[in-house]
Write a structure and sequence with these properties.
The structure is a single chain. This protein is an alpha/beta fold. Helices cover 34% and strands 14% of the residues. The protein contains 17 helices and 19 strands. It is elongated, with a radius of gyration of 25 Å. The termini are far apart. It binds 2-acetamido-2-deoxy-beta-D-glucopyranose (NAG) (8 copies). GO terms for molecular function: 1,3-beta-glucanosyltransferase activity. InterPro entries: GH, Glucanosyltransferase, X8.
């Protein structure tokens, strides 16, 4: 009995010890110059990655399906997939949306034990930086910092994507400014929380005509300690090598040339074209692998194949037989044999001296609409809460669908009322409160209107959507509010503390995230840009407000 008892005890200790140890003990990966390196021995790290998320369309916000399942929260699925992932030499999985409220220990320890690292996107389908109506605001900030909080302790996390393909057509380049602001604030948050300094933040770009300007924009004006504004790595989603293509026809050669003087690592954040294959989507020959891990390695750090699970878009490498078993498609085997033959040249950090410097920023013109600086202001949830308490007229209507009319009315009456909430990435004009949530932004504007109309009771109604309140300013708010000033156009101090605690509104990260309903409310480019046009025509109609 004793023998068995102590054996069981020892086994339990071993298991829990192993669980804690594998993601604690795996060497972190760091960025140095243009490459990734293992921190334990300074040996270069190449990604052999797979996109790992079921039922997820990464071009997210266009899909009506806003639910997602967290691929790092299901230990049994990880147990099913990891042995197969190892068969194709996987050392990185890319996940597109995790749920920060779930526990990830089981999958993360299994992955670490298998030597597999993770890169996680920070958004989720209903909370992401939208291409046509971009913002960087408190809701997004809570989501992003929540994901960082949830994953930072695992040393097999390489880093995060602050955006994925958010600029996907020529008229969406302004969105880059908001993603870059997200990069800056996420990096600032990691530093302020004293999280592991090797955690990187990058962007994954679509292969669009503005690709070179995008790459320059995200790496230019890198800022300095305490205010780092550039990406740590650049992900490139590329589907230009289809079937048995080649270095020139796929434009891989051009990309290598373009990125040869880029200051940070570049890798394929998605690859694996399925077009034009006589054997159908699952017959990918993966002939690009020999080149990617061959003569491209001076410039590229490997890549992430799109994708693990078979879904509606036909890119999967395996089909699920049942919850415990998956079955590989033919292209899984092609990928395996291609990867089996590569042996990329390993550079040692000790013999490598980075020589590339930050590129020049693209200038604003017909093909590029994001000014390099100023970027959208830093998001500071505490500032927004302080501002709302300091108002004499607040919004009580919680239905965001009602807000556009009121915005139009107030901003149309006098644009000064809205200086604190305006945002235009092309001119670099941003109100200090433009990163607050819609209700708080509207409250600021309503209060400006109220003050500007001699505080008459009628000037704080807006058809019953607003109400007067007694203003208060906590001592912890005084400096924040004075920095921003009464017009709401001064400098925004950087947030301190955990996002969830500072939000001032409802409690948990989960609640903050859940309360956001995208698409209900579009006042951004659409309505805000239309003030002037709307104002004259609608003033009469708006008098009912
Ligand atoms: C460095 O460490 C990593 C992780 O343990 C290992 O995979 C790699 O082979 C090592 N490189 C060298 C040159 O020892
Ligand atoms: C929506 O996503 C969920 C979670 O991934 C999935 O279970 C469901 O099948 C999806 N629904 C549709 C209609 O695609
Ligand atoms: C870009 O053009 C498309 C199609 O005309 C349009 O739907 C979209 O709203 C435009 N986006 C922006 C930011 O102007
Ligand atoms: C923008 O980036 C976020 C964060 O990675 C992502 O979740 C979202 O799907 C992207 N939006 C679009 C429209 O692609
Ligand atoms: C942060 O760095 C950017 C880019 O160099 C610069 O434009 C901005 O003024 C800096 N902000 C602060 C507060 O120093
Ligand atoms: C890289 O390899 C491809 C295919 O083998 C070849 O066509 C190309 O010229 C090579 N490029 C360089 C820079 O060596
Ligand atoms: C989103 O991705 C799906 C699957 O890859 C594709 O069918 C669809 O056309 C994409 N939508 C947009 C707007 O890019
Ligand atoms: C930003 O300002 C410019 C110049 O006034 C204007 O042409 C553009 O439409 C504005 N953009 C938005 C999104 O309002």
């Amino acid at each position: 009995m004793k023998g068995i008892g102590s054996w069981a005890c020892a086994a339990a200790a071993l298991v829990s010890g192993a669980l804690a140890a594998s993601y604690d003990d795996i060497p972190a990966i760091e960025v140095y110059g243009q490459h990734f390196f293992y921190t334990n021995n300074g040996s270069q790290f190449y990604m052999k990655g797979v996109a790992y998320q079921q039922n997820y369309s990464p071009n997210g916000s266009t899909s009506a399906n806003t639910s997602y399942s967290d691929p790092l929260a299901d230990g049994n699925a990880c147990k099913r997939d990891i042995p197969l992932l190892k068969q194709i030499y996987t050392n990185v999985v890319r996940v597109y949306a995790i749920d920060p409220t779930k526990n990830h220990d089981d999958c993360m320890s299994q992955l670490a034990t298998a030597g597999i690292y993770v890169i996680a996107d920070l958004g989720e389908p209903s909370v992401s930086i939208q291409s046509n109506n971009p913002e960087w605001d408190v809701t997004l900030y809570s989501r992003y910092t929540g994901v960082v909080d949830a994953l930072q302790k695992y040393k097999n996390v390489i880093g995060f994507f602050a955006g994925n393909e958010n600029v996907s057509s020529g008229n969406q380049t302004a969105a880059a400014a908001f993603v870059k602001a997200a990069v800056r604030d996420t990096k600032g948050y990691i530093a302020s929380q004293n999280y592991r300094s090797t955690l990187g933040v990058g962007y994954a770009t679509a292969d669009v005509p503005t690709r070179d300007q995008l790459a320059a924009y995200f790496a230019c004006q890198p800022g300095n300690a305490g205010n780092k504004t550039s990406i740590d790595f650049w992900g490139y989603n590329v589907y230009s090598w289809c079937g048995d293509s080649n270095y020139a026809a796929s434009s891989y050669g051009e990309r290598v040339q373009f990125f040869s003087d880029y200051p940070v690592p570049v890798f394929f954040a998605e690859y694996g074209c399925i077009e034009g294959l006589s054997g159908g989507p699952t017959s990918r020959p993966f002939t690009e692998v020999a080149v990617l891990y061959g003569n491209m390695t001076d410039v590229f750090s490997g890549g992430i194949v799109y994708e693990w699970f078979m879904g509606d878009n036909d890119y999967g490498l395996v089909s699920l037989v049942n919850s415990a078993s998956a079955s590989p498609y033919p292209d899984f085997t092609s990928l395996q044999s291609q990867l089996a033959t590569v042996s990329p040249t390993i550079t040692m950090k000790s013999t490598y001296t980075p020589s590339n410097s930050a590129p020049a920023c693209p200038s604003v013109g017909t093909s590029w609409q994001a000014k390099a600086s100023p970027l959208p202001p830093t998001v500071n949830p505490q500032l927004c809460a302080c501002m709302v308490s300091s108002l004499q007229c607040n919004i009580k209507d919680t239905n965001e669908a009602d807000y556009a009319d009121v915005f139009n009315y107030i901003c149309g009456a006098k644009s000064d009322f809205c200086a604190g909430i305006t945002r235009n990435a092309t001119t670099g004009t941003f109100g200090s409160y433009s990163g607050c949530n819609p209700k708080d932004q509207l409250a600021f504007a309503a209060n400006q209107y109220y003050l500007g109309n001699s505080k008459s009771a009628a000037a704080c109604s807006f058809d019953g959507k607003a109400t007067r309140q007694s203003a208060s300013t906590a001592s912890s708010c005084a400096a924040l509010l004075s920095s921003v000033g009464t017009a709401g156009t001064g400098a925004v101090p950087t947030a301190t503390g955990k996002a969830s605690g500072a939000a001032g509104s409802s409690s948990s990260k989960g609640a903050a995230v859940g309360s956001y309903s995208p698409g209900q409310f579009k006042y951004g480019g659409v309505v805000m840009g239309a003030w002037v046009a709307v104002a004259v025509g609608s003033l009469l109609g708006m008098l009912a407000l």
